[in-house]
Amino acid sequence: VASFSSHVHRVQQVVDAAHKYGRKVVFVGRSMVRNMSIAADLGYLRLPEDTVIDLKQAHDVQDDKLVYMCTGSQGEPMAALGRIADGNHRDITINEFDTVILASSLIPGNEHGVYKVINKLVQLGARVVNRDNAAVHVSGHCNEGELLYMYNIVKPKCAMPIHGENRHLVANGMIAVKTGVDPQNVVLAEDGDVVDLYHGQAAVVGSVPCGYVYVDGDSVGELTEDELEKRRILGTEGFVSSFVVVDTETADVVSGPKIYLNAVAEDESEFDKVRHQIVEQLQDAMMQGTHDTYKLQQIMRRTLGSWVARQLHRKPMIVPVVADIAQDIDETMGLNAAK
After folding, report:
1. Which of 157, 191, 207 is the last residue of a domain?
2. What is the rounded CA–CA span in Å between residue 245 and residue 288?
3. Rounded to 5 degrees, what angle do the CA atoms 62, 67, 71 make?
4. What is the per-residue DSSP string for 47-65?
5. Number of other CB atoms surrounding residue 249 within 10 Å
6. Could you report the per-residue pLDDT of 278-318, keeping only the tens digit for each?
7. Which of 100, 140, 169, 339 has the fewest CB within 10 Å, making it most exposed?
8. Considering only CA atoms, which of 66, 64, 43 is closest in space to residue 54?
């Protein structure tokens, strides 16, 4: 059974049903294990004696005497159910005729992830029961009539709808207005907005920086959107590097360009067609007085990138390298003079 790890009442229902029919319950997923342990300690979750067992102990119990209570009802790929569906969970595997219950509503925006998990489970032979084909879940979210009822009871001066997409927030705010809330006091805030309550009025008065914090190995928050975009390009388009040696004093290409490919289907020989274009562009630029290797690298990047886009219909990551022997000679002579 998959459900939110915060839905203690739903977990209680599953535990009671399992106990009634002689099944052992196993909590799966870190948040599920942690939350149910806290709920039990505080007295919100009643666990009949010898009903809940550890995941390792479940190996000694036959399948038809077990109920796994896990996270992942919204199709989260790293949640317990997602890993089980992918066959990546180290302790749980899906067998033919197993029953999987998604005891949750489908949150708008999660459709693709949820149905992807369902399809994988069905492919493994499981029978998947969800709100689409059985009355296994009643939403904990109030509907329009219940919201209207709540606003009429509370009679707030200000309203700030939260949790949902823009269309949900606007609809919620409209209900508040129907009950007498001043439209000026209905705040539709976004993540990071600073909302000020002053003399009975609510308003957005500023914002603070906020967003996703990316965890990459041991680094937290150091990965930027630009770096993620580069990784996406590397993963989908491939990598092309080009190395060339020039002599800016004589405006000549001494060696190269040598082109190296990684994760690109075409052979390096395909790029013979663009080598002479790179040489011509670099020589023309040097003859016009461009001696800066960075500017020459950008010329090579544009030439190579345009050709790949036209001929291969791809936009790989391109890393151009230009070495100038004239600059190296000048630096060597300067060092010798200093000695």
Report:
1. 207
2. 18
3. 135
4. --TTTB--TTGGGGS-GGG
5. 14
6. 999 999 999 998 889 999 999 999 998 998 888 888 888 88
7. 339
8. 66
